């Protein structure tokens, strides 16, 4: 039996595809993480502006102010 040699030639589009795959996947993962971070920050700022974390102010009545 004669041995058949197979030569593997890497074509330019195969090389470009293999080089571009990892940065693309990393970009998608980072994009998702940034999106979740921004959603968390926006919800936290909404809570602050809603007034849940602000102190309750006690206002005196106008008759009490006149007596003093």
Instruction: Give the H and E element order.
Output: HH
Q: Helical proportion?
A: 55-70%
Q: What does the radius of gyration come to? A: 33 Å
Biggest sheet record? none
Rough outline: rod-shaped
- Please state the oligomeric state of the protein chains shown: single chain
Q: Which residues sit in consecutive blocks of at least 5 with pLDDT less than 50?
A: none
SS-based class: mainly alpha
Give the strand content.
under 5%
Estimate the mean pLDDT confidence: 83
CA-CA gap between termini:
114 Å
- Number of strand segments: 0
Count of helical segments? 2
Give your account of this protein's structure.
By secondary structure, the chain is mainly α. It contains 2 helices and no strands. The protein has helices at residues 12-50, 62-67. The relative contact order is 0.05.
């Amino acid at each position: 039996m004669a041995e058949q040699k197979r030569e593997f030639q890497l074509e330019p589009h195969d090389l470009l595809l293999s080089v571009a795959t990892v940065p693309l996947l990393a970009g998608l993962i980072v994009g998702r993480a940034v999106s979740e971070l921004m959603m968390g920050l926006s919800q936290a700022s909404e809570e602050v502006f809603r007034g849940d974390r602000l102190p309750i102010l006690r206002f005196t009545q106008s008759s009490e102010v006149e007596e003093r």
